[in-house]
Specification:
The complex is a heterodimer of chains A (491) and B (95). Chain A has 15 helices and 17 strands. Chain A folds into 3 domains: 294 residues, no CATH class; 116 residues, no CATH class; 61 residues, Arc Repressor Mutant, subunit A, CATH 1.10.10.410. Chain A is of the alpha+beta class. Chain B has 95 residues and is an alpha+beta fold. Chain B has a domain of 39 residues: Histone, subunit A. In chain B, a hairpin with a 2-residue loop joins strand 2 and strand 3. The longest helix of chain B has 19 residues. The chains are: A alpha+beta (491), B alpha+beta (95). At the A-B interface, strand 3, helix 1, strand 10 and strand 17 of A face helix 1, strand 1, helix 3 and strand 3 of B. Strand 10 of chain A pairs antiparallel with strand 3 of chain B, so a sheet runs across the interface.
Chain lengths: 491, 95
């Protein structure tokens, strides 16, 4: 595969690493009992600890620790029995403590890896350096008042997992696939809700360029990207910028950049003259975090099936293609829906491919059209299963089933109810179909002549006419067979 | 380790504290005497001794994941020099 980008003078290779910040799914914050609910009125979920009132002490949330360990296991990573919380010191209006409690030298999770799969069937491992637990900061709003910045501390102290990758990524697409894969794993584990719009998952991108085979170049860090689209755009823009500088004889200055989502450009943050000096040191308010082998074992045994395992299981059990299986397992809600549908009737296991198609094309397009989500689909897995059963037993045709599904979607009725009420059962009575065909033939003598003279395409016309008369209910195969038989007899 | 003029200026800037020349001089002396005092610990041989993180050998206490919303917005904002529409209002920070 050629991952190089053409420059004026020669080809260049991108070297990319991601720092993903994933908000831990929990009821309360990392070191206080305030709620983590999104979208509440400003400063309504702030305790005296979160506001850093003097004398307040942090007490760690046990569940957040378990969530981090769970995530570490899902990333095939080493879980550290001993980790330490440090203070990362800096001044900012939305950081009341004047430091962020984070982990520096001794993170809770060490080296791991995730695998990304390409369309052509190949795959690649992206190595994880570490995962550590830290506090989120508050939120600054700059556009609410012409002369003031507003600060909301609701997010202050919410638990984050920072997942750091090695610089193993080489293209914007790989970066997108990597973050999608991490998101998928987090959502299967239920350790993060994966909602990028609400900022539950965001990434800092480190990027440099080099001539293939050279040492790594000087990198720049693009801060706080909250969509896969923006990540790709920012990487493309930044790589081009760096190549232009290097090719015109300049050198890259290590910088922290911001990405402007409306212009698609990166620019350096302003206060760069003050190189960061975070003065990390162990937080004297918190003892080291120790987790026993037994506790880790207990968490490991509670881990659900992850997307890769599930994909392989689907391929093996239901003889699905790699593509179908990866579409089904990319999102947990999709694989859950598939599982529930196929388990709703023992017969359906023999029609797995049909089940996949009805979920990923018919149902998905209806949901899209109505701006709805699979989670609150008006058609339950069980009801979809009943519809597919009617198709697989030849009771209705696939074409009619599409109309039935639309009806189910809007009316909430079952497929059986709709088919009975509207009399949509397939006509499988030989004599009845033959009668209709006789009618069609009798009414169109000229067409019959032309057909017999060799205009084979007209077969479709006769099928169409007969279908119209049966309101689309004739079994298509029987209709075809009888029609051919009858026409050929005329010869 | 010795604290000099450059170091004291850097520490002051990082702490957002403004020092005049007299104060800088005083702090250089104070901090150096503290460091000298602590230096004495180097006289002890600590080879093969595990770093001590905890003198009580107690373990990190943990909470259950229960949220209790005190909704103490008024208390939280009470000491703020400036507040507007339920927010802390601070001088405009760009970026």
């Amino acid at each position: 595969m050629n991952n190089l980008i053409k420059g004026e003078k020669h080809d260049w290779e991108m070297v990319i690493g991601l720092e993903i910040h994933a908000q831990v799914k929990s009821n309360s914050k990392l070191f206080s009992s305030s709620s983590t609910k999104f979208g509440s009125s400003p400063n309504s979920q702030v305790s005296l600890v979160d506001a850093a009132m003097p004398g307040m002490l942090p007490v760690i949330n046990k569940y957040c620790v378990e969530q981090a360990v769970k995530t570490g296991v899902g990333l095939n990573a080493k879980i550290n029995n001993y980790s330490v919380f440090d203070r990362k010191n800096y001044f900012y209006a939305d950081l009341p403590q004047g430091y962020q409690i984070s982990q520096y030298k001794y993170p809770i999770v060490g080296e791991g890896k995730v695998t990304i799969d390409f369309k052509d069937g190949t795959s690649k491992d992206i190595r994880i350096v570490r995962l550590h637990l830290e506090q989120d900061a508050g939120k600054s709003l700059h556009d609410q008042n012409p002369s003031k910045t507003y600060v909301d501390l609701n997010r202050s102290g919410v638990a984050l997992m920072e997942i750091v990758s090695e610089p193993d990524i080489r293209t914007p697409d790989e970066a997108g696939m990597y973050i999608s894969k991490i998101r998928s794993i987090l959502m299967y584990l239920d350790t993060c809700d994966g909602n990028m719009q609400e900022g539950s998952l965001r990434a800092d991108v480190n990027i440099s360029v080099r001539k293939p085979g050279d040492e790594y170049g000087t990198r720049c860090e693009i801060k706080n990207l909250n969509s896969i689209k923006f990540i790709k755009q920012a990487i493309n823009y930044e790589a081009k910028r760096q190549i232009e500088i290097l090719e015109s004889g300049g050198s890259i200055e290590q910088n922290t950049m911001l990405f402007n989502t409306s212009t698609g450009k990166t620019r350096p943050m302003r206060n760069k003259e003050e190189a960061h000096d975070y003065r990390y040191f162990p937080d004297p308010d918190l003892l080291p975090l120790e987790i026993s082998k037994e506790e880790i074992g207990k968490i490991k045994s509670s881990i659900p099936e992850l997307p890769d395992e599930l994909k392989n299981k689907f391929i093996e059990t239901f003889k699905l293609s790699n593509y179908d299986a990866s579409v089904l397992t990319a999102e947990k809600q999709t694989s859950d829906y598939f599982n529930e549908t196929i388990n709703s009737d023992p017969e359906l296991k023999n029609h797995a491919k049909i089940v996949v198609n009805w979920i990923t094309s018919e149902l998905f397009s209806l949901l899209n059209k109505n701006n709805q989500d699979l989670n609150n689909s008006p058609v339950s897995p069980e009801k979809l299963g009943q519809l597919i059963k009617l198709i697989s037993t030849n009771e209705i045709s696939g074409k009619i089933a599409k109309d039935v599904l639309e009806d189910m979607f809007s009316s909430g009725k079952t497929a059986r109810q709709i088919v009975d009420e509207k009399g949509l059962q397939q006509v499988t009575d030989q004599d009845e179909i033959a009668k209709v065909i006789d009618e069609v033939i009798a009414e169109n003598p000229k067409m019959v002549e032309q057909y017999l003279a060799g205009k084979d395409k007209l077969l479709g016309f006769f099928v169409g006419q007969a279908m119209k008369l049966t309101k689309g209910k004739a079994n298509p195969k029987m209709l075809n067979d009888i029609l051919k038989q009858k026409l050929n007899k005329k010869n | 380790m010795k604290i000099d003029k450059n170091t004291i200026n850097k520490i002051a800037r990082l702490s957002r504290i403004k020092l005049d020349d007299k104060e800088s001089e005083d702090y250089i002396n104070d901090l150096n005497s503290i460091l000298d005092w602590v230096e004495q610990l180097n006289e002890v041989n600590t080879e093969n001794v595990e770093p001590l993180s905890n003198i009580s050998s107690s373990i990190l206490p943990k909470r259950e994941d229960v949220s209790n919303d005190s909704n103490s917005i008024e208390e939280i904002l009470e000491n703020a020099p400036d507040k507007l529409e339920g927010f802390f209002a601070v001088p405009k920070v760009v970026e």
